[in-house]
Amino acid sequence: MFLVRPAGVPAREIGPDIDISKAVWLDLINPTPDEITRAEKALGTHIPRREELEEIESSSRHHEEDGVLYLSTPLVRRAEGTAFSLPIGFVLTDRRLITVRYADYYGFDIVGRRQAERDPAKGEPSANEVLVEIIEEVINRLADTLEGLGRDLDAISKRVFNTDRPRDPARAGEMLRETLRRLGHGGDLASMIRDSLLGLDRILIYISDRTEKDPQALKTRIKVAGRDIASLNDFDAQTVNKVQFLLDATLGFISIEQNDGMKVLTVVSAIGILPTLIAGIYGMNFHNMPELSWKYGYPYGLTLMALSVILPLLWFWRRGWFGAR
Predict the structure, then answer these.
(1) Residue 273: which domain range?
(2) Any bridge partners for residue 8, and if so which?
(3) What digits encode the pLDDT tens for the residues 3-20?
(4) Higher pLDDT pick, 131 / 264
(5) Which of 117, 123, 155, 119 is nearest to 242 (CA)?
(6) How many helices (H) and strands (E) does the chain have?
(7) Domain end: 124, 141, 174, which one?
(8) Domain count along the chain
(9) What is the CATH number of the domain that holds 52?
(10) Residue 291 has what DSSP assignment?
């Protein structure tokens, strides 16, 4: 989709009857190769393809050609309980901003609605102003995502350290496995947010060198956005540390559950040794066995085997291996 977003009117898809000569913001959403080619012919500017936006080298993500600044960054998005990261690109000229993205991002839609509601009497904003406004809104969305992730981790922490966890091993094991899955998703999301913040920070550095002719208010907004990114990076680092802490704690509880299972097996195997030994000894039936013809030999053997079970159980119980003292 190839949209033009003029000030004061809703966004419109580019067509033969649409004049884009004075448009400041052009928006390519999940563009096809034909739409990119059409945009290049209409604008006389190279539009980066998706494989170009996905390059990880800094020189590929941020460079200038013939006075045109090409910027790109991965941007995280949450949808239907999952998170994914897709590249977005900005082509910035002296008078025009072209955005290239392969997913719908709420921040772009918010800025687009503001453009549509803008008073036409105030004129079109500059390309730098539109770009800074988009970055500000994206930062706000990333902050909301981080806040949501922080709440999720708080809920996981309460669940992991809850003293009323189910004592049923099957239920406890399932709870811990689900916790590991949620922590894995949380760690991936924090990593993708960090990549997005790093890319936005580099974009701000590049565009700050092109705002000499812009009002001081815009320069101040760029500095404030940079400080917001720095604070979100700190929060993200704290979130990653919390994910690691909860991961270690969960693995520790899993080890405890496994040790409890091994204790049960140890108790069962230990209490079965002596009765088996006694039954084996008195089951040999040698002719000269003193107890062979003894009237009380049978109850004596049963009593001895019962004691060989009860005494180890009492010992394990006093050691706290099972039950509550």
Answers:
(1) 259-318
(2) none
(3) 777 777 777 777 666 666
(4) 131
(5) 155
(6) 8, 7
(7) 124
(8) 2
(9) 3.30.460.20
(10) T
